[in-house]
Design brief:
It contains ten helices and nine strands. It is an alpha/beta fold.
């Protein structure tokens, strides 16, 4: 399930298959992709890599729909678009870390495995996260939320443990029974088998077998003629008719007996490092 943020634009591919079991290093959080005990809530998240094309339009729509989302931003995005970042924060969205340069972290692109790449050490990863954090604090005067999302979805237990020690809990997007809440909005080639227009994107998300506690992945920018979130209002209306309310990742985790412990651990560590 490679993260589709186009920095550079990844080759379109379907969601990644289940991973083989591996020994989990001490301190590594479990894979956070579906919060089954959160109650009738769903987190809508947006990744921001470099481009801000149509981002202001999206923020307008989220405000109109009264949705507070979680945004995962690279430091490059933050430095290029500080005004948009400040607006997002003032609108009530929380901002997590997407590293600074959006590097590949595992061997997925080469061998469809998630072995930590040579040269990716704990110090290297934490430096990426710290640089992005500093850019955010410079732009907004406040710390990030204690969450991160690996570029291209390339992560493993070791990387999750390293990042948690740096004050960040890793957040994926939901996958279950061969389906995913990756919107695939990053696929812009209309000839690709993965391409969906906005209406089909939203219908596909609604067909996910466990929307309560789900984590949706979308993107802040798009070069499409029709914005991939054009039918987001219909999606949200359908959710609310089912009694499911969109929320931020922090809200989702606080409603969970399982995950609020990991949230507290990340919050405490993050506060210790950035107080």
């Amino acid at each position: 399930m490679p993260t589709p943020t186009p920095m550079p634009t990844p080759t379109p591919m379907p969601a990644q298959p289940p991973r083989p079991r591996a020994t989990t290093p001490p301190g590594a959080p479990p894979i956070l992709h579906l919060v089954t005990d959160s109650g009738p809530s769903i987190a809508i998240t947006f990744d921001g890599g470099a481009s801000s094309n149509r981002t202001a339009e999206l923020l307008d729509l989220l405000e109109e729909l009264n949705i507070k989302a979680t945004l995962f931003l690279t430091g490059q995005f933050i430095e290029k678009h500080p005004t948009l970042v400040r607006r997002a924060v003032l609108d009530g969205h929380e901002v997590g870390n997407h590293t600074f340069n959006h590097p590949h972290l595992t061997s997925w692109e080469q061998d469809r495995r998630h072995r930590t790449l040579p040269g990716i050490t704990k110090a290297v990863l934490l430096a990426e996260l710290e640089r992005s954090e500093r850019a955010f604090q410079k732009a907004t005067g406040r710390p990030m939320a204690p969450f991160w999302r690996a570029p291209y979805g390339e992560e493993n237990a070791t990387l999750r443990a390293w990042a948690l020690d740096g004050g960040y809990l890793h957040v994926r997007w939901s996958s279950l029974e061969g389906r995913s809440l990756d919107s695939l909005d990053w696929v812009e080639d209309e000839h690709s088998s993965l391409y969906r227009d906005s209406k089909r994107i939203m219908n596909r998300l609604l067909a996910f077998p466990h929307l309560e506690g789900g984590i949706v992945l979308m993107h802040l920018a798009s070069a499409r003629e029709e914005a991939p979130w054009a039918h987001l209002p219909e999606f949200v209306e359908a959710l609310r008719k089912r009694g499911i309310e969109p929320c931020r990742i922090s809200t989702l985790l606080r409603q969970s007996a399982v995950w609020k412990k990991w949230l507290l651990r990340a919050e405490t560590r993050h506060q210790d490092l950035w107080k």
